[in-house]
Amino acid sequence: MRLIALVDMDYFFVACEELRRPEIKNKPAIVGSDPKQGEGRGVVMTASYVARKLGLRSGMPLSMAYRIRKDTIYIPQDFEYYEQMSAKVMTLVKVYADKFEQVSIDEAFIDISKRAGDYDDALELMRKLKQEVKDKLGLPCSIGISVNKLMAKMASEDAKPDGIKAVKEEDAAGFLSRKPVGELYGVGRKTGKMLEEFGYRTIGDLAKANPVVLVERFKSYGAELHNSANGVDDSEVQENWEVKSIGRERTFERDTSDRHEITKAIREMSKEVGDELKKGGFAFKVVTIKLRYSNFEETLKSRSLTHRSVEPEEISQVATQLFDKYAETGEELRKVGVRVSNFVKYKGQKRMAEYA
Ligand SMILES: [Mg+2]
User: Fold this and answer.
1) Tens digit of pLDDT for each residue in 182-197?
2) Is 224 among the residues known to form the active site?
3) Are 196 and 263 in the same domain?
4) Which H/E stretch holds residue 128?
5) What is the predicted pLDDT for the residue at 245?
6) Which class for 39: exposed (0-12), middle (13-18), buried (19 or more C-beta within 10 A)?
7) CATH of the domain at 214
8) In a domain, 305, yes or no
9) Which of 211, 233, 255 corresponds to the end of one domain?
10) Lowest mean pLDDT among 73-77, 166-170, 219-223
11) Cα(200) to centroid of ligand 1, in Å?
C-alpha cells in the first residue's frame, strides 16, 4: 500500500519570529517586505492565525493590511533565518521518510510506505514526528496522510492548524466531494472561476463531469482536472528537485554601445525574471550580468545582496550598477544577460499550471 504524507509548517515565517520575539504571540502579526509607512508596494508573506481571523491574508498589499488593522505588528522578512529554521525542520522530517521531496521552505512530501504498514502505523509515526518538531524546535505543523501526494496535500489543508489527518483511498471521493472546486490542489483562482462559470461548484461536481467535455473546455488540462477531482494522482515523491537560477538574455539587432538601449533591455529582462521568480515562489540573493562584445569576448559579473529579495526593481538596479561598473566604455555589445540565483523557495508550487 502506498502511504504519502505532506508535512506543512503552520504560518511558518511568523512562527519563526515568535520564537525570538515571544511578545508578538497572540497578536495580529505579519511578515512581509518593507511597507514604507504604508506607502510601499510590498505584500504580506505570512500572517499569524490571529491576524488571519481578523481578515489579514498572505498576498494582500501591506497598505491594505494597515487599513484593516492599525495595530498590525509588521516584521520585515528575514529569509536567512527562516532558511536556517527550515533546514532544522527538514533534518527531522527526513529521518521519517523512505523518500523525501521538499516542495518549499516549509513543506515536504514524504513517502512512508515501507516503514508504515497501514494507516494506524502511519498516524502513530506522524504524531511522533509532529511532537518532535514541536519539542525540539518549538514550531507547529500540520500533516496530511493519504494514498498519493494530491490527497496528502488536501488532508493537510483540512488538518490546519496544528493537526494531523489521514484520508484512506476508499474515503477520498467522499472527502473531496463537498469542498468548493477552488480548493482542489492545483486549481488557481482563474481556473476556479472558469470552473464555476461552467457550473462545477464543488469538487464532486467536477468528479462527476464527463471527461470528454472537460477536455473540450480545458484542453489537455481537462483530463488532469478530472483525475484530481477524483483523488487520482500517480506522481511519485521525487527527491532533490531544485531550480538553481533564473535568467534572460537578449541579442541586439545591431551591436550597440548605447547605454539607454542597453539599460532598457536590462529593465525589461529584470521584469520578466521577476515574474518568473514570483511564479516559482523564489527569493534571490545573487544578481549576475553577462556582457558579450562584438568580438565575442564575454564577461560575467555578479553581486551578492546582504539580504534575499523578491523585487524586480532590485534586479534591474543591481544589474545596471554592474553594467556601469564593468562594461568597457565605448565597446559595442552583441548580447546582454541578467540572471538571479542563490534562492530560497518561500512558497510551494501549484502542481498544475494555471489554465488560461
Ligand atoms: Mg505552510
Assistant:
1) 999 988 888 899 999 9
2) no
3) no
4) helix 119-137
5) 87
6) exposed
7) 1.10.150.20
8) yes
9) 233
10) 219-223
11) 28
Distance CA 349, CA 353 (A): 9
Mode of pairing for the β-strands spanning 29-32 and 73-76: parallel
**The whole model's pTM is what?**
0.74
- Ligand 1 centre distance from Cα of residue 107 (Å): 6
Question: Which tens digits make up the pLDDT trace of 231-256?
Answer: 999 888 988 656 788 999 898 989 99
149 occurs within a structural domain: no
Give the rounded distance of the alpha carbon of 259 from its chain centre: 36
Judge if 330 and 252 occupy the same domain: yes
- Both 276 and 337 in one domain: the answer is yes
Among candidate residues 107, 169, 224, 298, the one labeled active-site is 107
Q: Does any domain span residue 69?
A: yes
The total number of structural domains that make up the chain: 3
Residue type, 223: A
CA distance 242 to 306: 23
- Domain that includes residue 261, residue range: 245-345
Distance from the alpha carbon of residue 336 to the mean position of ligand 1, in angstroms: 38
Contact 69, 87 (CB under 8 A): no
Please tell me whether residue 10 adopts helix, strand or coil conformation.
Answer: coil
In a domain, 179, yes or no: yes
Assess contact for 32 and 310: CB atoms under 8 A: no
Centre of ligand 1 to C-alpha 161, Å, is: 10
